[in-house]
User: What shape does this take?
Amino acid sequence: MANILIVDDEERIRMILKIMLISQGHIIEEASDGQEAFEKLQDGFFDLVISDIRMDKLDGRGLLKKIKENDIACPLVFITAFASTESVIEALHLGAVDYLVKPFEEKDVQVAVERALGMGKILNENRRLKHALIKNGADERPVFFSSTMKEIESMAIQVAQSDATVLITGESGTGKEVIAKLIHNSSSRASQRFVAVNCAAITETLVEAELFGHEKGSFTGANSRKEGKFEYADGGTLFLDEVGELPFNSQAKLLRAIQERKFQRVGGNSEIPVNTRIICATNQDLGRMAAEKKFRQDLYYRLAVFPIHVPPLRERKEDITPLTRLFIEKFADSRNLTGEIITKGAARKLNEYSWPGNVRELANAIERVMILKSGSLPITTDDLKFISIGVSEKHEVQENLFHIPPTGIDYDEIQKNIVQQALDMTAANQSSAARLLGLSRARFRTLLKMLEEG
Assistant: This one.
């Protein structure tokens, strides 16, 4: 038994189909045009739509397009007077699962319905798995709505067909690792490991051991042989995030491993061959760092074989609304998302904000709202009061910006307050907070550590 929506501007056709399908045990609803059908699809659940192609207001092709655009997992069968018309071919290309030719026999209807319902089960299962992945944070495929991001998607898929080293640049939180995963998943290595390493999170003394592994007894605490990330990613992809933070004396060994596709473990003598694809990411200007001798120039040229720059969210405003919808769906858990999920005013406020923390900050903001609202929708401007429009814009430094009062100040407390404000504004992203304060990431981390210890 299935819920089936019959869409036709001829009442006679609707009645014939209804009689045939009720006799097979199905529950039937009717609509006289595509617009009425779409409204019914938004209000309720259907296992199948059977629709005429030619209708007033909204025809069958328009209805199918709306079903696809709104991610409604419902298969559609077309009714047509001619089996070989161009419109039918076009509709099948658009995603219709079958068609019925007038006049139709009951057995033809039964076969088409059974086939379409089988396809519907597959569509619903795929949709369920997709939503489960989103909720678990595993579906990190970027939302490519802006022309810039569509171009980046095309470049990523193109370079995925080779083993070229890729350097992804852009501010923190723009989705560089997401692009790296897209390259990996679009390549012949997709079935192998994707291993991510945050170079900034490894202490300088352990960088080489982390990347290349170590032999037993090679240093204090090395109680057994351990394989490094290069070896662990053999056959797959090694993603070196924040590669600009890599210590200068470790860069030569990285360069050799990339060029020769082999390395030695720390404390070892034997050469270990690997077939590992390298993708790097940085929020720093490696070209400038190389010119200033802060990064090896030969390594920079080796990493930047195929550069991809991911622009900040404020430069691709078209992505804000679709990303917002994606995050609402992710944090809404299993709640019903039909109807309005964000008001126009709230969407406008999100688009006016400059997002110094980029996509990561947007995700954190939506998660915060959903927690405070206990998942209820829609999101309104009142829910976004913590977002201050323009707070992240750069302002020219003015003389005497701060006046010391005669009673004096608590300098340490003011420093702490400024640092905390920067962290709050950037969803605790240290790189973005450092930029707000005009500091390097390393200097900001030193300041933060000093304030925490003090």
User: Anything to note?
Assistant: The longest strand covers residues 277-282. The CA atoms of residues 11 and 32 lie 8 Å apart. Residues 133-140, 390-400 have pLDDT under 50 and may be disordered.
